[in-house]
């Protein structure tokens, strides 16, 4: 059993499906990856069903809902199609993310303040269906306030700028981005929002974020799937879990 106050770790399995789809066929199987992640001690599975189905497929979501014993965090764009899929499956959580077909990965946070009325109406049926609604946003007070006003229960802060600055050796920028994540975690927690963080986190960057007491969950995928090539998925997840727990004390 994890100690009180420890972080939850959500493992994103999208890029197992990316490898599968590059060749076609059935392997590697994202559902097998999800089962291994569960055995390794993760607290949830994240899967992003993109509009273009570039990695996770509809069948993957159906399979995950059948086999998972930990919660599914269903990432999706704010479209009618995705809303209907979420309402059909009723996963534990839905995370609303921005999505552009030309991007390689999610490039930034959702613009909530500009679309506040639309998003408030969009998430209401999801909440009514029993899904916890999370909004993926940058470490920006204006966006956090808007997420709170529309009725989101959770925000996930985009950690990509912090991680990119670290790996590019721009340490002043890294420290500024880390401080913004820290300040906005505290601010969001003060509003009553549950705070998650995700995007780009690695063994080298996870501990400063994991040390924030207001952060309840980290969602990590691409790095873990890549690291699994060298050490195996279960050991890769176990090491991330160890670093998170060590940072949390």
What is the gist of this entry?
The protein has 249 residues and is α/β, with parallel strands linked by helices. It has eleven helices and eight strands. The protein has a single domain (27-248), classed as Aldolase class I (TIM Barrel).
Describe the model.
This protein is α/β, with parallel strands linked by helices. It has a single domain, classed as TIM Barrel (Alpha-Beta Barrel), CATH 3.20.20. It is 49% helix and 16% strand. Helix 9 links the parallel strand 7 and strand 8. Helix 2 runs parallel beside helix 3 and helix 7 runs antiparallel to helix 8. The longest helix has 20 residues. The model has no long low-confidence stretch (mean pLDDT 94). Homooctamer; tetramer of dimers.
What is the strand content? 15-25%
Radius of gyration: 17 Å
Under CATH, the homologous superfamily reads Aldolase class I
User: Which fold name fills CATH's third level, the topology?
Assistant: TIM Barrel
Largest sheet: 8 strands, parallel, barrel
- How many separate domains make up the residues? 1
Strand order of the largest sheet: 1-2-3-4-5-6-7-8
SSE ordering: EHHEHEHEHEHEHHEHEHH
Please state the average pLDDT score.
94
Low-confidence blocks of residues = none
Provide a count of the helices: 11
Given helix and strand content, the structural type is alpha/beta
Query: Total number of β-strand segments?
Result: 8
Which term fits the overall shape?
Answer: globular
Fraction of residues in helices?
40-55%
N-C termini distance: 15 Å
CATH class annotation: Alpha Beta
Return the CATH architecture. Answer: Alpha-Beta Barrel
GO molecular function: pyridoxine 5'-phosphate synthase activity
Function: Catalyzes the complicated ring closure reaction between the two acyclic compounds 1-deoxy-D-xylulose-5-phosphate (DXP) and 3-amino-2-oxopropyl phosphate (1-amino-acetone-3-phosphate or AAP) to form pyridoxine 5'-phosphate (PNP) and inorganic phosphate.
Main location: cytoplasm
EC number: 2.6.99.2
């Amino acid at each position: 059993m994890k100690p009180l106050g420890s972080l939850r770790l959500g493992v994103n399995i999208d890029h197992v499906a990316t490898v599968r789809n590059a060749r076609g066929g059935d392997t590697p199987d994202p559902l097998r990856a999800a089962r291994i992640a569960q055995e390794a001690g993760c607290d949830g599975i994240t899967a992003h069903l993109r509009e273009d189905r570039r990695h996770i497929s509809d069948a993957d979501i159906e399979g995950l809902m059948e086999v998972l014993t930990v919660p599914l965090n269903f990432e999706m764009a704010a479209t009618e199609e995705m809303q209907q899929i979420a309402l059909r499956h009723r996963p534990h959580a839905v995370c609303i993310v921005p999505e552009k077909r030309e991007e390689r990965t999610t490039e930034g946070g959702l613009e909530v303040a500009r679309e506040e009325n639309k998003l408030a109406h969009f998430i209401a049926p999801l909440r009514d269906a029993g899904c916890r609604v999370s909004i993926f946003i940058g470490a920006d007070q204006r966006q956090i306030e808007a997420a709170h006003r529309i009725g989101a229960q959770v925000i996930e802060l985009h950690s990509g700028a912090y991680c990119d600055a670290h790996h590019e050796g721009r340490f002043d920028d890294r420290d500024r981005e880390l401080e913004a994540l820290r300040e906005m975690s505290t601010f969001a927690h003060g509003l009553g929002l549950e705070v998650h963080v995700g995007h780009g986190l690695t063994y080298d960057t996870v501990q400063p974020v994991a040390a924030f007491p207001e952060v309840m969950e980290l969602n990590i995928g691409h790095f873990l799937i890549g690291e699994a090539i060298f050490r195996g998925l279960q050991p890769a997840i176990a090491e991330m879990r160890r670093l998170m727990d060590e940072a949390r004390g």
